[in-house]
Specification:
By secondary structure, the chain is an alpha+beta fold. Helices cover 31% and strands 26% of the residues.
Length: 323
């Protein structure tokens, strides 16, 4: 379970910017690594305080955090998302800590300034459904653009990590995207193959596309956009189907959406709302082991908001019969 950022900083959920800054300054001074040499517990508290402040001090990030809660936020957004755009250099100088970015780079890896520096890279993803950071970036001209700053003086052979959001159906069917790595020396296009059945949070590796001479690897963390109809649990897929009260009572044949188009399904008599009917092998392709998951149709009995005179009479007759 993810820790609550408000509790980490020791502030109320309606705390304003000044209260957040005051609380963060107090924790930063207490747990600063230079004041707690070799103390791993203090270092961890310092890192958590910085992470909490990076989110709560940013209006957009805080809105997302309040919307999804601690657990939901940690599942949706990576550390790169959290620290993207955070200007700890100026904040730490104000506190009298010198160059705070050097400290954070040492603790977390990467760099944390708002401004681009030598060695910085930009990622542009082409293809349907591509998205960048969910929080945006200062000066960003396109919502599909995500930045990863490699920082200055990076050693050769270093890996790079970026996020890429794909559509639900891209995750189901697989496909190919083209990323453009833009840097000082120019730009380079990298084709990325998306395997069918990939899950949220899994990473794709593109060998030799990292940073520097004799570069390391490019790791792409996958995020999957929600689908308006289908939801996913592992390799299984769930879809809700509305049925009329008469269909639920008498049974019959209904048409349901699947990943491969609509299919006709036999509805057993006496079906209740919430009942799940399994379509074996109609789910998502398994990355390992072969085969597919299942598709579950969850029934929801649709009751008309308004009844005609005849419908009302029939309903009253059913009620008299105990139905």
């Amino acid at each position: 379970m993810a820790e609550d950022y408000y509790k980490i900083l020791g502030v109320a959920k309606d705390a304003d910017k000044d209260q957040l800054k005051k609380a963060f300054r107090k924790l930063a001074m207490k747990y600063h690594p230079d004041r707690n040499k070799g103390d791993k517990a203090a270092e961890e508290r310092f890192k958590k305080a910085n992470e909490a402040y990076a989110v709560l001090s940013d209006k957009k990030k805080r809105q997302q955090y309040d919307m999804f809660g601690a657990d939901g936020f940690s599942q949706r957004f990576s550390r790169e998302d959290i620290f993207r755009g955070a200007d700890f250099g100026n904040i730490f100088k104000e506190f009298g800590f010198g160059n705070g970015e050097d400290i954070l780079s040492r603790l977390f890896g990467g760099s944390f300034g708002q401004q681009s520096r030598p060695g910085s890279f930009s990622f542009f993803s082409s293809g349907a459904g591509a998205q960048g950071s969910p929080f945006g970036q200062p000066g960003e001209s396109c919502s599909r653009k995500a930045h990863y700053s490699a920082g200055a003086h990076q050693p050769s052979g270093q890996d790079m990590v970026c996020d890429m959001t794909i559509s639900f159906m891209e995750a189901v069917q697989g496909g190919q995207r083209t990323l453009t790595l833009k840097h000082q020396a120019g730009q380079q296009q990298v084709k990325v193959k998306i395997p069918a059945g990939i899950k949220e949070g899994q990473r794709l590796r593109v060998s030799g596309k990292g940073i520097g001479v004799g570069a390391g690897n490019l790791y792409i963390k996958i995020k999957i956009a929600p689908h308006p109809i289908f939801t996913r649990e592992g390799d299984d897929v769930y879809v809700e189907k509305e049925v009329l009260p008469s269909q639920a009572m008498l049974g019959g044949t209904i048409e349901v959406p699947t990943l491969n188009g609509n299919k006709r399904l036999k509805l057993p008599p006496g079906s209740s709302s919430g009942r799940k009917i399994r379509l074996k092998g109609c789910g998502i392709k398994r990355l390992k082991g072969g085969g597919h998951g299942d598709l579950y149709v969850r029934l929801a009995i649709k009751v008309p908001a308004k009844l005609s005179v005849r419908q009302k009479k029939l309903a009253q007759e059913l009620a008299q019969e105990g139905l």
